Amino acid sequence: MTSTIAILALFLPLAGAAAAMPAARLFGARAAEIAASASVALAAILSVMLFMRTNFGGETADIHLMTWIAMEGFSVSWGIQLDALTGLMFFTVSFVSAVVHIYSIGYMHEDPSRPRFFAYLSLFTFMMLLLVAAPNFLQLFVGWEGVGLASYLLIGFWHQRSAPNDAAIKAFVVNRVGDAGLLLGMAAIVMIFGTLDYDAVFQAVPRMGDQTIALPGGMEVGALNLIGCLLLVGAMGKSAQFLLHTWLPDAMEGPTPVSALIHAATMVTAGVFLIARAAPLYEYAPQAALATALVGGATAFFAASAALVQNDIKRVIAWSTCSQLGYMFAALGLGLYQAALFHLFTHAFFKALLFLGAGSVIHALHDEQDMRRMGGLFKTLPLTWTAMLIGSLSLTGFPLTAGYFSKDAIIEAAAVSSVGTAPLIFALLIAAAIGTAFYSWRLIFMTFHGDYRGDAEILRNAHESPPVMLIPLGLLALGAIFAGGVFAPAFLGDGAEHFWGGAFALRADNKMVEAIHDVPLLIKLTPLAAMVLGFAAALYLWRRPGSANRLARQHVLLYRFLLHKWYFDEIYDRLFARGAYGIGRIFQQRGEGLIDGIGPDGMARRVLQMTRGAVKLQSGYLYHYAFLMIVGLVALMSWILLRA
Amino acid sequence: MTELSLTEQLALFLPELLLALGAMALLMLGVFQREESGRRIANLAIALTLLALLSALTLPTERAEIFGGSFVIDSFAITMKALALIGVAAALLIGRAFSETQRVGRFEYPILILLSAVGILLMISANDLIALYIGIETQSLALYVLAAWHRDSVKSSEAGLKYFILGALSSGILLYGCSMIYGFGGGIGFAEIAAAPPSAGLTIGCVFALSGLAFKISAVPFHMWTPDVYEGAPTPVALFLASAPKVAALALIARFTLEALPPHAGGEDILTILAIGSMILGAVAAIGQANLKRLLAYSAIGHMGYALIGLIAGGEEGLIALVVYAGIYLLTIIGVFCSLMALRAETRAPQNIEELTGLSQTQPAMAFLLAALLFSLAGIPPLAGFFGKFYVFLSAIEQGFVWLAVIGVVASVIASYYYLRIIKLMYFDDPDISLRMELSPSSRFVLYASGVFALGFILAPRLLSEPAAWAARGLLGLP
């Protein structure tokens, strides 16, 4: 029964994706919307059942679908590894996806190619489920690339404009860097463990502690740490972590529901999922875990700082996503995988809510995304305002909202961790929390309060979104408020052991879950103080018009530094993009001689030269022919006699 | 082996006897009946060929030597004779239609083909140098005349003359080689030559003899006559030139190298040089051709190179590959020539590749057949030609001639260009002129049979590979 549910939940979105285009051709675009949305909604309902069975009923299953690769001593199968982790991800992914599908019916209703949109969206859902269902690294990799493809297609959905195309290519290329890390990590796993199956690998991990791999150059490194770091590179690419983050803000060129589903709630959490899945390995790879924590802390701080000064409503939320993913990575690196997944879970709700709310604003203002031309909208869009407010409260960790439980757990983990750099990570996370509160309230104030600063004509036509868009907001708002409080005992509290079952095979000395329960009160209050501080700063600057500009002028260098997102795009452009273009130009200009000359064109030219020679040989004169025969005979004779 | 009585020997010689006596009888008939006899003689010639084919297929399968060891009948000879006779029959069928439509109906055409066929059969069965020479000359003499069949056409006369002079030169080379072999080896029978003590003179003689034989399969560098003769000769004659005599010459070279050449004569080296040269030149030079028949001539040169790989690789697999390749080549090239003859631009057949432009729009069925046949010649799976090349390369690799297979594959990649160019013209360009189709029932039969073979070979490859295996075992003396 459980297996059937899992298989149905996995393949229904694929069926929806396959059916969308034919349905649109036969019955019109509405049929495509219904086919895709209904199949994903059904998958979501099944996933809820699955979640109850795996995480509260304690069921697990190994479902073998098909043998993929069968070689002597190495085999890989398609299948579903059903445990608490899979159940949680199935629930999160398909629930958010279903909500976004329904929302998109309203949001995309004017777009002529929306059947394609829905097909992509359902395809993405399938790929993400395939990723989290994987019983081995290779199937995970298929899903990994599949979501990357779907993301590429959806960012570039409006391919008539150049910016989405550029953003899509950027996302794909930056992700390739991470994918290379993941591939190398998988290669190292095969080398050390001889298999890609999770169970076999993770059971063997404790015995492999002193294995080493020789790098080119003769350096010996610990195998587990190397694998951990390579997997981390993969995860950093997909989860837009520090240094590989540049694609995520640009990905906002895609339609807003895509941003909500893929670039906030699900796909970007694939990196978190990967490391959580490989938790048994990271338990024995302390340096890789430390690197994960540092990357996470750095990302949380850096992304929050960049979000402080952005003016595009979606980009603010995108940077916020990046920052929150940093929190999750920090928790993973500190060994509190449960908190990372808890934050992943709550974040999916409030971040999807924020994005869909922003989408509602953008929809109402006819594709206006610049907050400097918004303001005072809470009268026009009261329901959207409520949704955004709930989302922001949850994001900033307002007491008893969902984000409060999960984020505070991570900050507490940094406080109690015995890792040497834990204080640094703690400081980064607190600073990020201040920033989070600041940019969240700045967004609310600039968008919904004060006077409207845009085109009056647009405001007059602005109206609240239709129910098909508001009901999803309501569902997500419920999650953003209650998902934390309701599930906190299960994720981190007394029920944790039952909730997770055997999903994590952690070391016996990993006592992080217990440790965060008895942190000093002072530390418990720090995140709250940070939140209040950020709110106060935002309110102060908001209340005194011009003060923000004055501040920006006084610290013009810092302001520019933040506005340009620490100049990462510019640096990468100089270092990599222009370098690559330069090499490309060299080959283009000198290509005649280099690649073409030796390769296809050159070969073709050699052949044609030979052809000309052969044709010239065929002069038509009899004595030439006879002469050549004699020459050939003499040559043959010489060859044979000289050889003998 | 017991000595056979004269009757038994003549019974084993039945196909040759049938063709030789029949050809003379038909000549008498033609001379006495003059004008109105063309069609009847053509029909009788076809019947005679089929009868010879039938009698060849019913020959006893055990190896037997007749006429004092001059000729040998074994499974290899029977298989190759059957293949060659199929080529002869096709040439007769098409020639009948051709001479009627072209108003050059002369009753000598089928008779000359039959006489050439006698030579072909003698070549395949030859077991000593005299028989070898007689076979080649009988086959060639008729062909010299046929090449110049259009007496009024300068090109045809030129073709006949060039063929004759160069053929005479090659015969000289061959004869000189034979005399050296006899002088130094002390015998003319293949078995005697093989057993002769090594000497430089014998080696030289063998090189000369092989060179003379290479002329007959137009292997590089003895290929020069081929494009000019194919272009100038009437198309049915070119078809005949490209089919049965090639199979016979391949069979003769195979028997000569395997049974007569002493190991020190360097036969393998010579064949390798010939094969590489033929494959490369056949591929490279054909690209530069605008004339269809010249292109097919170079294609034939290349194909002979591939067939030789089977012989170089040797062993049972190699010989099977050789026979299969020869069979596939023969049955495919017949169809290609046949389709070229069926097309008409105004009154004459298309000469240049460009004239086939847009054929898929004017004659879709014909374009499809021709495309299938050309794809087969290029060696594209799943068509017959692919399997020919596959067997050949596989045997080469298994016998350790990997580099030879690599050269072959590279050459066939280059060669595929000019086949594909024709297909591109037929399918992707718009026609300037509309080609008509004139297909007599007999030509239609030949064309469709060839097309079905090229397309359907994959379904029943055993129809060819089993006789080939039988032939290979016969030649190698395996059970």
Polypeptide structure, described:
The complex is a heterodimer of chains A (644) and B (479). Chain A is 73% helix and 4% strand. Chain A has 29 helices and four strands. Chain A has helices spanning 2-27, 29-56, 84-107, 114-133, 137-155, 162-193, 198-204, 223-238, 247-250, 256-265, 270-277, 279-283, 286-307, 313-333, 337-364, 382-396, 402-416, 422-448, 456-461, 467-491, 496-500, 512-515, 521-543, 547-554, 556-563, 568-590, 595-598, 600-617, 622-643, and strands at residues 61-71, 74-82, 212-214, 220-222. In chain A, a hairpin with a 2-residue loop joins strand 1 (61-71) and strand 2 (74-82). The longest helix of chain A is centred in the N-terminal third of the chain and has 32 residues, at 162-193. In chain A, 53% of the residues are buried. Chain B is mainly alpha-helical and 479 residues long. Chain B folds into two domains: 1-265, no CATH class; 269-479, no CATH class. Chain B is 76% helix and 2% strand. Chain B has 21 helices and four strands. In chain B, the strands form two sheets. A two-stranded antiparallel ribbon of chain B has the order 1-2. In chain B, strands 3-4 form a two-stranded antiparallel ribbon. In chain B, strand 1 and strand 2 form a beta hairpin. In chain B, helix 7 runs antiparallel to helix 10, helix 14 packs parallel to helix 18 and helix 15 runs antiparallel to helix 17 (364-378). The longest helix of chain B is centred in the middle third of the chain and has 32 residues, at 154-185.
